[in-house]
Design goal:
Blueprint (H helix, E strand, L loop, with lengths): L18 H51 L1 H5 L18 H16 L4 E9 L2 E12 L5 E10 L1
Antiparallel strand pairs: 1-2, 2-3
């Protein structure tokens, strides 16, 4: 009886990974690592923008509270102001003091921070839109804006 032939690995036979397979694995690993790096960069940008958005929300709420304290003046239009229209001097009127301090807080807290307040009266009901803008080129890459609408 004849025994089955034994397979021997000779110089013409390859075993294990070939060079092409190793290159393909390296390319797949490289693409995966680039994806992880892009995800990390996106996370860093969001981590920079998130506190600024929170501060903008707090500053808008702060102005709403100031307006509620001085409700008569707010309903009369004393708080209506456009971006960059806030005077630097604090007059005797509480509304002007509030606006100057609010703008100072915007300047101190947000990069290139500024705000506006718009009063809209419909059917005897006044609503106010408080808008805060700031420069977020390090985070989202563009100027950002937060707007809050409320009744006093």
């Amino acid at each position: 009886m004849k025994s089955p032939p034994m397979h021997k690995h000779g110089p013409g036979k390859a075993s294990g990974f070939t060079f092409i397979e190793a290159l393909v694995a390296l390319i797949v690993l490289s693409i995966g690592l680039l994806g992880v790096a892009a995800l990390q960069l996106s996370s860093l940008r969001s981590n920079h923008s998130s506190p600024l958005r929170s501060q903008a929300t707090l500053l808008a709420s702060d102005m709403v509270d100031r307006m509620r304290v001085n409700r008569t003046a707010a309903l009369g239009g004393a708080y209506d102001v456009d971006f960059d229209d806030i005077a630097d001097d604090e007059s005797a009127q509480q509304s002007q003091i509030d606006l100057v301090r609010w703008q100072a807080n915007l300047d101190d807290t947000l990069p290139d921070g500024k705000g506006s307040i718009t009063r809209n009266v419909v059917g005897g009901v006044a609503t106010f839109t408080i808008t805060v803008q700031w420069d977020d080129t390090r985070g989202e890459g563009a100027p950002m804006e937060f707007a809050m609408e409320t009744q006093i």
